[in-house]
Structure to design on (213 residues):
């Protein structure tokens, strides 16, 4: 059985995956409205509502109703500047966004996490992603989809040397460890949003690639 999301809330619309997902949503005839707050203005579209400003400050002003929410927020420790700043985005801001989405009526939340997310991990990045997942589960969503892509592939505005060097190898790794194109992930997210599957789902990178073909 499939649901047809009509009113969408999207965080991270200017990011690598968020840009592709926004294009996808705005091209869908079944989507009535996309509410996409962002720090810089997005291209105008008749079905797009784009409050401009810092997301945390914008959340109280957002209006519903919303059917489905996508969270494409994500940074790196280097990009954020410190472990504390990274946690503020990839944990605290994600949870604040999810809480507001639920207040606006959303019943399905889809969140980009990361391969290896584990609240017990000795790796700080993976531990924060795992703690974020656990906290979202505690919000008791009717439908929660956590996707764990491997390295995201595609052109970024900022230069990431490690990802640039690793990308050729990760394209060929088997199973869930293989890199995934952001365009593929965006298509997979949309397909997952259309599925009615109550409770919590955790989707690894290998399945995401199949869904996004």
């Amino acid at each position: 059985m499939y649901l047809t999301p009509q009113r969408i809330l999207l965080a991270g619309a200017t990011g690598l995956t968020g840009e592709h997902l926004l294009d996808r949503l705005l091209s869908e005839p079944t989507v009535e409205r996309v509410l996409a707050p962002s720090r810089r203005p997005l291209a105008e579209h008749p079905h797009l509502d784009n409050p401009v400003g810092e997301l945390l400050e914008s959340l109280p002003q957002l209006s519903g109703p919303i059917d489905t929410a996508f969270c494409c927020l994500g940074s790196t420790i280097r990009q954020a500047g410190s472990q504390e700043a990274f946690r503020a985005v990839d944990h605290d801001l994600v949870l604040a966004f999810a809480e507001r989405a639920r207040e606006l009526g959303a019943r399905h939340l889809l969140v980009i996490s990361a391969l290896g997310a584990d609240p017990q991990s000795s790796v700080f990045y993976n531990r924060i992603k795992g703690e974020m997942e656990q906290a979202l589960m505690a919000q008791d969503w009717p439908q929660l989809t956590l996707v764990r892509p491997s390295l995201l592939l595609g052109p970024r505005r900022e230069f990431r040397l490690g990802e640039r060097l690793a990308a050729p190898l990760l394209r060929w790794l088997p199973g869930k460890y293989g890199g995934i194109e952001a365009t593929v992930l965006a298509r997979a997210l949309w397909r997952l949003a259309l599925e009615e599957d109550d409770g919590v789902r955790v989707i690894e990178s290998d399945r995401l690639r199949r869904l996004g073909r």
